[in-house]
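=== Structure Prediction Worksheet ===
Name of assembly: unnamed complex
Input type: mixed (protein and possibly other molecules)
Chain count: two
Listed entries:
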Amino acid sequence: MIEKLINVAAKREKAELVLKNARYVNVFNGKIESGDIAIHMGKIAGIGSYSGVEEIDVANFTVVPGYIDGHVHIESSQLSPEEYASLIVPRGTTTIVADPHEIGNVCGMPGIEYIAKASENVPLDVKIMLPSCVPATPFETSGAVIDGAEIERNIDSGYIYGLAEFMNYPGVIGADPDVIKKLEAAQKSRKVIDGHAPTVVGDELNAYICGGISTDHECVENSELEEKLAKGMYVHLRHGSSTRNLVSNSKSVTASNMRRFIICADDRHAADLKEKGDMDDALRTLVRSGFNPIWAVTIATLNTAEAYGMKWKGGIAPNWTADLVVVDDLENFNAKYVFKDGKMVAKDGKPLFDTSKRYLPEDVLNTVHVRDVRPDDFKYEINGNFVNAMTIKPGNIVTGSEVVRVKNIGGDIDVSGTDLLKLVVVERHGVNGNIGKGILKGYGFRGGAMGITIAHDSHNIILLGDDNASMARAVEELKTIGGGMVIVDSAENRTYSLPLDIGGLMSSKAAESLQRESKALIERAYSMGVDREQEAFMSLAFLSLSVIPKVKILDTGLFDVDKFAFMPLEAEEGPKNKVVVNVKVK
Amino acid sequence: MIEKLINVAAKREKAELVLKNARYVNVFNGKIESGDIAIHMGKIAGIGSYSGVEEIDVANFTVVPGYIDGHVHIESSQLSPEEYASLIVPRGTTTIVADPHEIGNVCGMPGIEYIAKASENVPLDVKIMLPSCVPATPFETSGAVIDGAEIERNIDSGYIYGLAEFMNYPGVIGADPDVIKKLEAAQKSRKVIDGHAPTVVGDELNAYICGGISTDHECVENSELEEKLAKGMYVHLRHGSSTRNLVSNSKSVTASNMRRFIICADDRHAADLKEKGDMDDALRTLVRSGFNPIWAVTIATLNTAEAYGMKWKGGIAPNWTADLVVVDDLENFNAKYVFKDGKMVAKDGKPLFDTSKRYLPEDVLNTVHVRDVRPDDFKYEINGNFVNAMTIKPGNIVTGSEVVRVKNIGGDIDVSGTDLLKLVVVERHGVNGNIGKGILKGYGFRGGAMGITIAHDSHNIILLGDDNASMARAVEELKTIGGGMVIVDSAENRTYSLPLDIGGLMSSKAAESLQRESKALIERAYSMGVDREQEAFMSLAFLSLSVIPKVKILDTGLFDVDKFAFMPLEAEEGPKNKVVVNVKVK
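=== Predicted Assembly ===
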């Protein structure tokens, strides 16, 4: 291998492939340079004047290194890893650092292994991070527990690249013993530990970093970002579907700190990947905002490779991995060709690899182990007439709470004729049959029930409705289809659903058919009253995310994230018999 | 450990040490920042407002990360690793990447292990690179051979950090099978491979880098440097005693490529270390030349750490190694305090550690295994009256050659009354008793012999003289003292010598006494006629370095470096009976 490459570089042998007359971004000196790029056995052999067995003239294009997404949950696309690759590789992403946190919560280590093995079917380099926080908090019921001992057992597995985002930042700052065990295992094996510490600054940030955590992708304020960077962290510019701090955070980039910026998608929906793109869309967006295009490319390639210790990746030079994107220009970043390990794997936005292959082990199928439910299971027994309702702002996964008056009909709450809905989480991992109950204000749905088996982060069933029978029927349907999304229309007496057969999170179908079906279901939810500023099902999926303020619903009950403790559903009437409205919404 | 550090960062426990009111160089954002630096268990726990069990007010100083020398041969100081550390640590160098190439050539792997073990006596982090080219060429006799198989056996040893400078660049470019074996072994174990490729550019450079070689410290021309950098190499600014391209090469540094520059000493004499300094002198020199001081610090710290894959080193931030230098300012870089792993190890330029410890295993002592020699062994039998003489320019290790007329006295050459000297290399590793013979023009010594057991790179005895008896006597003396430097004065009939007891290369004495004695011996050499523009003994030591053009003397004979082949001592008379002078001197 080495000998062959040297022989090609020295022109004693012909290169397999030469990109003739290339104009390329040199991330080492920040210049646009030119030459023929000789490619052999997956690597760049040389740049200069070369001839190859195959030659492609790229004179009218610009060559950039393949993009590296530093942190992404494939599951958020609701696509299999194979189908995910078929969307992003043609866009120019050739490497991702994947955190299979969602499937880890449902299936444990077999779910993580599934992502690794499925990824082998496609020409995308998938670095698997071992989820660090399964479950996200000890307060809820997940399908699996990956504790310190489990991390110790698995961190050195060949397919594990590092320890994934440490979301339990209070646990790190507080030096929780099981957290320490996880961090120690990762440090011992010299693995990268990803961070996730929204709003954490000052001494607490010092403490967090002392866990050996070297990246963060949760910066909201630029001052927070700049402090994290100053304290040695690599900081992600994030270009997710919901959370996009790319452009605002990019205002902190200077010539002196540019090398410490990296990039990620975090969570990106199939529709965005298909219609807008992936890292290419991030670059386009940055450059359109006035950002230096060479910096943009460097951040998405060399910097991310360095942050994650990927050698010989992210640059165009001899002996570097031949992951290359041939784009029209550094403004539009439209990928004409994509090369992975020296092979052309996409052309004109279309994958050139088999996109129909699916690795589908039993472990990740049939994961809805929910108990039989009856309408009576959704009765709400309270004593008085006031409850702590959850409130939700459109486009924001941060929730609030408000004390509201409800109609207590004796042994149940009747939400009909109000802007309130029953919101429940039904445990679906076959552990305890819990049903956590809350009241949601202002979502807008009426006339039945809707639910989904994606409910961050434990992925139980999250379900809302205004009649108990529909709610029970929705659960039954989700059980029948093996996980997915469901709407029960009580007026029509009909059930509409879409299976997400892989862990109840992802579909084994092609992106196109999944999108078509899911669009129809989402439209039905809107037609049944869901506020169009909500994301119908996906906004629902975040109402159980117990690491995001302020009040969330878990299978174990209503949870106050700020206090990190449960709170009662039933509220005391406020002083002087008035309804107390809690206005402190972050 | 992790827990303790977090507790200190979060102020639940007191730090062992706090540098109060620190002004420090933040290499992550290129700013000067301030705060208390809390240090605990060898790491920085946090920067902010901290109190410690011990506190040192550094308000009037500037704190920078400990310097990292990216490539150095400790042997060039002629000091033991312990004594070497006692000179450089008080200057602020806390980590070095050491290539024990010289002792490797004499003692093989035991010599390399010696450097590693001796380094454990001192608070200096010594990363040991496995010498890649022992012997430097297959044409000479060294004390050891470290071939591909030996590299394979040792590259994964715990104390080996990487593969040292690959000087055999023709072997890499030509894909020599044993060279490939070495490169493959290093790549397989994911080790850094250092480069050494003077003047190599173009396709040959592509080929060289395809060996997996990621650094170079041999750039002379800036165009060469810029090409190497553009091709993905980290480029060393070198601040050696003889070879200093620091300032001239630094003219190539820009904001866009700065991150790819690193720094090294390569070869630095004890006198320079003592009088001028080490990396601190490099920084001083750079800044005085107008170089950005923050860039200078970054190059000597974070950049070098990144190039060599040292995690959590080279920066001042939470969880980073507490290797710190407290300097007066960023102009003079005078070190007030030096901290290694959080401990104060030097103050006011003086080491605070035991400098008298020496690890001295049998393996590296008594290494002069030379055969008994008689004056007749130094007779030169030639047929005609012309020889290819070596020529030497002061201050330059590149040599030339010239055809000169000699006095053939039948069975010997008489150099008396000329500007010619006999120059020989006597094999001293107990292998074959070779004596390679040459004629040196213009060195200036007269009236006896002088020699040294440092003779790059195989470190046989290199010896010059104008009478055979003195030359034989010089060899006997070197044998008696176990290696070192010698002068025989035939007029006085006296011998003067200085032992270099460690491998015939280094002294186990303290720097001061070695310097005093060596100064006296050097002065004697000058008084016997050595051109004062030469370095007396050290210029001699490079006349056998067969990888530097143009003509060198080996134990096996006269060697044409450009042709990479032996050349005869005896020359044909030139056309028309004139003396042919070869003027092509690089």
